[in-house]
């Protein structure tokens, strides 16, 4: 791989702010923590399924699941950190009211109830874990994703339907065209705006495109901060289309991103060679976004569609001049 490397004008590791949710952000953080210890994760707060959805409905809280996963990805490398990360991710079994809840979700919720501040609670969990970085929610309020979907009804293939809720949008059988957030113009966490303005690198993706990547660009104040920051912006594409973008090419993922954030410009777009191999439009789309396209072998060797954190870390280190 030969890429345009940025020479950092300071003798320290770069500060990096990574955006996403769920397994995609977990993969990104697992790689980035090998590159720098100046790391902040900014997490979507629209999950309404599983344990998070149940807690959100009962307590009116931010959904803790994706925040929990980000904390687990940043846990310390010692026995204490690894043990606590495992505890956070474990779930209650049986048929009782706690069945299916992640232990970490209940811990985070308990701290939120105690302190009345989501960020203070997350900071306390991070300290407990010896986390290599900080985890922040992208907004102050729980959000709802609403998608315009075509083709849900096979008898009316051109009819546009509205699908509400992250869990439903992620598994919809129709073709998602656009998404928006409810409430409209949600407030961004002020800590997030501050860190985006001061960071050296912004990293978007990988992850579910409509429900984990794009939502950050639909919070107006946050989108403006990402667009205007002095930081270099890096986008990591998925290894293959997720459920909600099934059948979409790599370049179509970029087209969707540009449709939702037309002012966004990027410095790098990182894509797996296999996903990008037959996409003749990808390079041109990257150029239209101001980005250099970086192709590499990024997949795990076990055949699963997951990024190898070591391979991804190597790409990040090269691009960030570490």
From TrEMBL:
Required for morphogenesis under gluconeogenic growth conditions. Coiled coil: none annotated. It is found in: Cytoplasm. One of its GO terms (molecular function) is LPPG:FO 2-phospho-L-lactate transferase activity. Keywords: Cytoplasm. Belongs to the gluconeogenesis factor family. This is Putative gluconeogenesis factor. GO terms for biological process: regulation of cell shape. PANTHER family: GLUCONEOGENESIS FACTOR-RELATED, UNCHARACTERIZED PROTEIN YVCK-RELATED.
